[in-house]
Specification:
The protein has 15 helices and 14 strands. With about 425 residues, it is of the alpha/beta class. Strands 2-1-3-4-5-6 form a six-stranded parallel sheet, with helices on both faces. The chain has a six-stranded parallel sheet with strand order 9-8-7-10-11-12, with helices on both faces. Strands 13-14 form a two-stranded antiparallel sheet. α8 crosses α12. The longest helix has 23 residues.
Length: about 425
């Protein structure tokens, strides 16, 4: 029995829930130190014999939670079954999820460095045997020093873009770029939302992700310069969680001219994709992105993309498949206080306005961008392209698991009609 297991049993038996809550601030630092020490201890890092385990918040609706779902789905699309380990209830406390040891195998943690200690404490670090990979996303040029230190708890850190990889320079583990995999079948038969004959530009963001970083104000400015007072052109700004930031939402609505509509609602994702599919262009004048999933999805849907030429989206976006808006670097100013102390991009509003005008008026441009965008997603973000970016050991484990699954299928008796 491990020290953590013994302590957990005593903790549960000796203290009622109210006292555990009171004692947590005192004993929490000791748990952090113990989990970090055990996580950095030998853990059969070369043993891929067990199942591939994808760890994440499988009920979450935010970016890195969604990446866990896509990762598991990509393995399964290649025929390799995986174990999905849900950590939605993970807390850095003495309760934990289970004391059961698991066979060694690859563990892929889709949670950022600040949540990693809680995930390991929840599972029990001695139970997490085999190679460990952390999938992390960060949007600014330099990740926090604590992230660089806590990389030592992983055998390798995976990131969705080379931009994020550069932000982890100095991490205490190797860093590998592993893009978010997309599935073209999810975008092939999407029915576009009903619309009228007006030119339609669309942008989408979540207020929780920082309005300053997503920069809808810049998009309104570019659209207004491209089509001043033009009632034959329409911009839809689809947001969510604006009600949590009522002053920012009111400010955004106040600056929107008559041909700009702000919709702050939570939609099913099928409805979001239908809106993107209906658009003549999707615009992202972001100041920083760790990857840029909406941009990649717009390209997969064949909608022409206008995006800032800086940060994570440049791994799959260039002038051959999108309208790339030049930018200069400026100090971060974020009224929500989510980001601070670094530099990010200020996109060129005149260039963005020109890109909008060109997509509307230049013959053949929209069709060329549509075709090139789809092709780029297939080349760089398909499950097959994604697999090729993984470590050799994980690739071999996936191919071995897929072969075993095929043999198991063949050995099953055929069902009688």
């Amino acid at each position: 029995m491990s020290l953590l297991t013994a302590t957990r049993r005593a903790w549960r038996a000796a203290l009622p829930p109210q006292l555990r809550t009171i004692a947590q601030p005192v004993l929490g630092p000791a748990l952090k130190a113990y989990v970090r020490r055990q996580a950095e201890a030998p853990h059969d890092a070369g043993d891929f014999s067990g199942p591939i385990r994808v760890v994440g918040d499988f009920g979450g609706s935010y970016g890195i939670a969604h990446s866990a779902i896509l990762c598991a789905r990509a393995f399964e699309a290649l025929g390799a079954p995986v174990e999905k380990v849900d950590i939605s209830g993970a807390r850095l406390d003495w309760i934990g999820a289970t004391d059961a040891a698991r066979s060694p195998g690859a563990w892929i943690f889709h949670c950022n460095a600040p949540e990693l200690l809680a995930a390991l404490a929840y599972l029990g670090p001695k139970n997490v045997r085999g190679p460990r990979y952390g999938y992390w996303a960060f949007e600014l040029p330099r990740a926090p020093k604590s992230w660089l230190r806590d990389a030592a708890m992983m055998d390798e850190v995976w990131v969705p873009s080379s931009f994020t990889g550069a932000s982890l320079d100095g991490a205490r583990a190797p860093v590998r770029t592993v893009p978010v995999p997309l599935f073209m079948e999810d975008y092939r038969d999407v029915e576009a939302a009903p619309r009228d004959a007006r030119f339609l530009a669309v942008t989408l963001f979540d207020f929780k992700s920082s309005m300053a970083r997503k920069n809808p104000q810049g998009i309104i400015a570019a659209f207004s310069r491209a089509f001043p007072g033009d009632d034959t052109a329409r911009l839809v700004i689809k947001t969510q969680n604006g009600k949590l930031f009522p002053e920012l939402l009111a400010k955004l609505r106040a600056m929107a001219p008559p041909n700009v509509e702000v919709i702050d609602e939570v939609w099913p994702y099928a409805q979001v994709k239908a809106l993107i599919a209906a658009a003549d262009a999707v615009v992202s004048l972001h100041r920083a992105e760790g990857f840029g999933l909406i941009m990649a999805e717009a390209m997969a849907l064949g909608t022409p993309m206008i995006g800032t030429g800086w940060s994570g989206n440049l791994d799959f976006m260039d002038e051959t498949c999108a309208m790339v808006v030049p930018a200069r670097l400026v100090p971060v100013e974020d009224p929500q206080g989510i980001y601070r102390g670094q530099m990010w991009a200020e996109p060129d509003i005149d260039a963005a306005a020109e890109a909008l005008r060109r997509i509307r008026t230049e013959p053949g441009l929209a069709q060329r961008l549509s075709e090139a965008g789809r092709k780029r997603v297939i080349e760089r973000l398909s499950p097959q392209a994604w697999l090729a970016t993984l470590p050799d050991g994980v690739q071999r484990a996936a191919l071995k698991a897929a072969a075993a699954a095929r043999r198991a299928d063949l050995s099953r008796p055929a069902s009688r009609a």
